[in-house]
Amino acid sequence: MINVEIISIGDELLIGQTINTNASWMGAQLAGNGIKVSHVVTISDTWEAITTALEDAGKRSQVVLITGGLGPTKDDITKQVLCSYFNTKLVLDQNVLNHVESFFIKRNRPMLEVNKLQAMVPEACEVLFNEQGTAPGMWFEKEGVIFVSMPGVPYEMKYLVETYVIPRLIERYPVKKLIQKTYLTQGIGESFLADRLTDWENQLREEGLDLAYLPSPGMVKLRISSSSGNQSRVAFYGEELKRMIPAYLYGEDEESLPEVIGKLLLEKGETVGTVESCTGGSIMASLTSISGSSNYVLGGLITYSNDLKMKLADVSSQTLEDFGAVSEEVVLEMAAGGKKTLGVDWSISVSGIAGPLGGSDEKPVGTVWIAIDGPKGKISRKFLFGTDRQRTVQMTVLTALNLLRCEILGINIEKKQD
């Protein structure tokens, strides 16, 4: 097993201006090919920081992947530091220069003198030709350690990793391909999920498989892994998981709830619409983020005020007066009114107190009612999502979509009340 280190260069990463998605993407791609990332280091774009990072990485890792600092501007100094570290000099690479020139010609843009600097590369490196941009990748070797410097632009880095880095590492080092599958759950917390899956997890681990819980607001990912490449057992435990928690497990790997719902509605030839209060159209935005959603999403109503709840969704003024806007009675009428007005098979309605203002002892901030009116009847559920406004909206969207998924599939949903 080889140890790989990732060095990410850029002050924008350190101050939080840019999220370091490059490192996480590389880690995932390498792990999927049986290559372990042992360290991830983020440093500023300074001579001292880069030099120190290279020296430290060279002592503890066999492969060092570097991203960032390869632009044409004066503050991009990575190539100069690499020349110093590998005791070499910058030379003009004519093939790279030709590529840079053609890059600007194709886009009908003028090429500045500063852009020609991208064709200057350390003499000691092997150039990795970058079809996606103007800055090439650079492959070095020193005292048995491989160093690969790549641009920080994500799609350029991904091209170089997929085209050169991973294939070469697999060819040079004996690695066992890591088999892993991720299952996506919604509506159950990490600790409750772990408690429910205790026996299943113990058996999985006894067979030499690994399980990781990856929580985020509104959902928990479960990643099953086999370092020995046992794909059949990973698949077996995945199927067991689907059988055990159908109300919570909605998809696999990169699937999203809107995608899953879209496939279900297309298969059944059914349509959906929304009536939203506290989410302000976020459920509709989520549903319509999927290409082709116009085949099953007909529209939505944003009824933030009580007046519009009555005018657009046909909610009774008496119901609003007796129970308040955030109530089971109101969301059921909203869902029924939306179904009729929009002419859809499935209507989702939500009303809640997103906060931070507006709560009471009876209905604290984070109280949300969700209802669904469909071909099989109506359901309603009450939730308490906490005091953070953005989190409450996000949780409401995910929860409402998963409730719809369960209703479409006829899955019995556990009732959640105070």
SS content category: alpha/beta
CATH uppermost class of the largest domain = Alpha Beta
Q: What name goes with the CATH superfamily of the largest domain?
A: MoaB/Mog-like domain
Radius of gyration: 27 Å
Report what the structure shows:
- Helix 11 links the parallel strand 13 and strand 14.
- The chain is an alpha/beta fold and 418 residues long.
- It contains 15 helices and 17 strands.
- The two termini are 51 Å apart.
- It has helices spanning 11-14, 21-31, 47-60, 78-85, 94-106, 154-172, 190-196, 198-206, 231-244, 257-268, 282-287, 306-313, 317-323, 328-342, 389-409; strands at 3-9, 36-43, 63-67, 90-92, 120-122, 126-128, 137-142, 145-150, 179-186, 210-216, 219-226, 249-252, 272-276, 297-302, 346-352, 367-374, 377-384.
- It has three domains: 3-172, MoaB/Mog-like domain (Molybdenum Cofactor Biosythetic Enzyme, Chain A); 179-252, Alpha-Beta Plaits, CATH 3.30.70; 257-409, Maf protein.
- The strands form four sheets. It has a six-stranded mixed beta sheet, sandwiched between helices.
- The model has no long low-confidence stretch (mean pLDDT 92).
